[in-house]
Amino acid sequence: MHLPTTPTGRVCLIIAVVAMLTQGLLLALPPAPIGLPAHTSMLSLHLLLEMFAFVIAALIATVTWHTFSSGGDRKLPLLIGGFVVVGICDVVHALTYDGMPALLGPTSTTRAIFFWLMGRSVEALTLMMIALGWMSRLSRNGSLLAGLLLAMGLVTWGSTGVAGFPVTFIPGQGVTPFKVGYEWALCLLNIGIAVLLWRRWRSEGEPRYLLLACSAWVIGIGELSFSNYVRPSDLQNVVGHGYKLVGYALLYWATYIGSLRAPFEALQQAEQRSTDNEQRMRALADNLPDTVVYQLVRERDGSTRFNHISAAIERVTGVSAAAALADPAALYGRIHPADQLLVRAAEQESAARLQPFDVTVRMRRTDGMERWMHLMSMPRWLPGERMCWDGVQTDVTDSRMAMLQLREQEAMLSAVIDSASDAIISCDPTGRVRLFNPAAERIFGHPAAAMLGQTLDRLLPTPARAHHAEGMARFAAAGVPSRSMGPGRVQGLRADGSELELEASISQVTVNKTQVLTAILRDVTERVRTERSLLRYQTELTELTHQLIAQEKASNTRLAQILHDQLGQTLTAMRIDFVSDPKLATPAESARHARVDRLIDQAIREVRQVLVELRPTLLAEQGLVDAIDNELRSRRQQAGQVRLLLEVAPALAGRRWRSEVEYAVFMVAREAVANALLHASGSEICVRLEGGVRWLRLEVADDGVGLRGEASATRPGHLGLVGMRERSIAIGGQFEVGSMPGGGTVVTLQWEETQA
Questions:
Q1: For the domain 420-523, what is the CATH code?
Q2: What is the pTM of this model?
């Protein structure tokens, strides 16, 4: 069970338990008259109790009358009409009690019981409608009128037609079965109402429903007292009236909570919330960073005063809020003299047109520092033809300085863009031009005024326009900050129709939620023409090199043939003829003969050496590997202490390549070894040869002094390196000269066949 835990709930619980226990005790006792003092009569006690009941009923109706409004609780009018009837029935019940003076007829216990039962019935029906949540459509006047009419009808019935009402009391015997049944029915009805009200209290949590439930419970339990007495002065009858008073008191308590105390508490809470809100607003105004909240009033005579100014004014300007409230000049006087006229003019215009007052002025703080203040307020009229401005004062020095810096940066950027030698063009994702700098005007021949708002198609050759928009859309959607445009270069179109070669890069940024694409374009038309001419010259030079190498090879072959077939044979014939001469008689002639023989032999050897250099015989007959090996063997005599090594993969033994490739590689190897012997000053020269069916790699490395600075590059006039490079280019190879990490020089030739 959900028991109440509030003080009101605990009181109700105690009253309900005590009422049930007390009634249980009364039901166990036989009817017996109450012992009253000699000077007190039952009639007086009964009248006193009923007068208390009437006062409480009147209070319930009165309180409800004065607190009910058309927008309030629509259940309250039920209490007005219901308890008007209950109060009148209680009064008539007391006045018609047996022994009282005649009122609209003779008094009797039967008439008194009739008005008692009617009052209890109306009270139960009223509480039942409240428990069921029935909403009255009557106003308080309508409810009062309905109650008076019903009470008048009951009084008329009880005064003239009570004989037709069932007998409720027999003198000397007590209450009749009808009376007992009626009281039990009222008891059960009130207990049922108490249960309904208890459930409403559990669901809605309003204390008045708990009090109403307790009231219905006590009144219901008290009804049993009126079913078990013989004489009106019996204890049960007197205690039953006490139950009624307690029940009425609980009803009044519920009405008071719902009608007076609850609104009063709500008003107190609203006032507290208002105070809290005011304090929060004041704290907010006092702690706003660099901002002052103020209210300025201009009186009819033109004088001004601050009606309110937040304490932040001291933090912002150094002037205390008390000083500003006492004298506005304490604040106005700190405005820069050149800006005071601006403030006065803005105030007059704001007051005349009822438009916002909005100025930015310089103000000197009490510490001498000058700050920029933004004053913003809204005017409104006050009673008595007075004007009030509600506004804020904000220190905008930092933001103003930042804005000035931004403007300076924008001016610098604009100057850079205007003075740039490259064209700078910005556009939106649709290709509409938004920026066209002077360099773009010069390069493309279009004035900026004519290009702004136009599409980029005017700057593109016709073939490039079809895919340009698609490429821009892809770049805009990719989210990449920047990239180069096109494969190296893009084409442009001048205003005179001539085409341009451009190096271009594009970037994108988002400004005010708008995507901006910016291209930087450099006119390289002349450079492209120069490069093409240079490429043509290089191609012609390469072709010339091929011809020279071919001519060299042919010349060497012819010269070798001439030396071998003519000079060689001539020398051989001379030697044979000379040796066949008869023996000379004199020693001098013999010595001359021997000297000539030696010279002929030396000439034959030199011819053979020239033949080897002009036409490597092993290269044509046995291949590249054997030719290089033979070359190194022949060089060892002049190499001295320098070791000449050959490293060849075993798989290359007997492998052949095209004759021109073998010739070029052999000549490069011979030249590299000769250069190393002449300039390296090292102790070892190693020739490495690697290759496959369609590729070949030659490497000549020494451990000498290496290359010095720019000597690593092929220089004009360095014919050895130039010759090796040109021979490499002639066969489609790659030639490199570099330094070794530990010292020395390495010459590399890499060849790979590109066609099957």
A1: 3.30.450.20
A2: 0.42
